[in-house]
Amino acid sequence: MVGELVCTVGAIIVLFVVWQLWWTNVEADARQGAVVREFVQDAATPDPAPSPTATAAPKPGDGPAPVPEQPGNLGVIGVMYIPRFGEAYARPVLEGTGRDVLDTLGLGHYGSTSMPGAPGNFALAGHRQTHGAVLDNIDLLEPGDKIYLQTKDAYYTYVFRSGEIVLPDALDVLLPVPHKPGAKPTESLLTLTTCHPRYGSTERFIAYSTLDSWRPTSAGPPPEIAATVAAAQKG
């Protein structure tokens, strides 16, 4: 009887691990793929013809980067492309860091941090191993790697600068200037946060990038991700 009970408990544990590490990824990948496809297809839809008095669309790099309006919880901000994570990597970025976002929909924006293009810290969270494993390979990033964010109005190009491992209560990584309370930001930063180690959560892995350039969506995606954007649009 005891032996049967042990076997049953063992089987339940194995099934839970399979669900946690595999099936949650299958479900999240499908949902995230649908969100990405819908967003990219919508972004590719031409706007109505401008009036004769409309100003010309800005060229890549002209003027300050646009800052999108911050949506409500679960609102889609855009799509993130990280070539270092593979040619097919395209993940949705949504408002909020609750389970309703992170467990199903992808990368979540800390609402207290800046929006892309604005001076300060655009900070995101994502799972590393389960629920889509959106930041599974964060430790593979190398200085100089480019990270791209597509919003409704622009493509932002960030350059990875550095990473660090901190304790879960190190909330100063989310400050406008990480680790510097009260400092006035002069750059537009992207901060990615996830669990560390890979199969644990006793620490946090933090990746910092700096906005390098931007281009309006009307100019098309940066050449480095053009094929990925086209594939995401087709689904």
Automatic annotation (TrEMBL):
Q: Where are the transmembrane segments?
A: 5-23
**InterPro entries attached to this UniProt entry:** Sortase (IPR005754), Sortase_Class_E (IPR053465), Sortase_dom-sf (IPR023365), Sortase_E (IPR042003)
Question: The organism sits in which domain of life?
Answer: Bacteria
Q: Where are the stretches annotated Disordered?
A: 43-69
Protein's organism: Sinomonas flava
CDD domains membership: Sortase_E (cd05830)
The protein in question is named Class E sortase
Record has Transferase as a keyword: no
Q: Which SUPFAM superfamilies match?
A: Sortase
Q: Which UniProt keywords apply?
A: Hydrolase, Membrane, Transmembrane, Transmembrane helix
Matching entries from Pfam families are given as:
Sortase
Q: Which Gene3D superfamilies match?
A: Sortase
